[in-house]
User: Fold these one by one.
Assistant:
Number 1:
Amino acid sequence: MGQSLLISVILVISTVPFWACTFDYGSSTSERDDQPDIVMKDVEYVRVRDGDPIVRFTAETAERYDKRQTMELKNFTFEQFEHRGAEVNAVGTVGTASVQLDSGNIRMEEGVVLEVESENITIETQQLDWQDKERLLSGREENQVDISRSDGTNFSGHGFSANARSRTWGFSAGIEGTYIHEDEEEETPAEEPESAP
């Protein structure tokens, strides 16, 4: 798994608290932990660096819970741009995400699809966890994770884990799949026979 994918997911989700959007305060206030302090709907955010878009993300709903220090997202999508915003490098969709605001840890559930164009890789599963300090992405043992490439390479397994620092990934159980290795043969021009003097 490429480091750019992990960084994309973290940059996108960790910047959620800074979105501009409309607010729904509801009809009453509550001190209960299960009542969000802020509800934002139809959220869209574009992060720009040096005048160029670097990431765009949307969420149907974003709810912030101050006492629990969490942000709950529903129907979350993102696009990461490169080449001064001219090309999309990575896209992702997540059914729901829970962001721990103090640690940066993220739980993604209800369908996770991450596609990274530069790595030619797609990851699909029902649930993934990001541990920000450790820079680890992992899936639960009971959830199957599917990894595929456009060349036909595909792996499935349980107990998925990926380390963004070492740029490694693996499964702890039930791995199966196909790896396609395409030889890139160098074409050398045929030597022409020397002509007699």
Number 2:
Amino acid sequence: MKTSLCVVAILLSVSGLAHSALAGSVKDAREHGAAMLRDAEDMVMHGGMGDAKAIVHHCREVKKHAEAIIKALPPADQHGKDALPHLKDAIAYCERVAKMGDDVDPGATLNPATKARAAAREAMKHVTAVKDGGA
């Protein structure tokens, strides 16, 4: 009887730790998401001002945050699964901007940068809907 109570106590503490780890991951995903949206907005704003170096810089940051979100999202959550294609699109568009570099006309990088911003916005609709428990 005493042994089974100890086992139950251990299982409850472990499940509590797993739950808090998942909640931390969702919190991290949301924090990266907020930063990703800020960088996406700044990226397009600088594109409108003709600053190619800033577009490339912010796009690099968008990509970094999108990759961090993918790692932090709970794999079992449907909203997390729904966010994945949009995050991958944002990464792909930012890779396209990076390949163009900062020596090209900023107008050329503005189209993929705008598409990256749209993908980031759409992804965040799903990321913010992810439940803190991960399911």
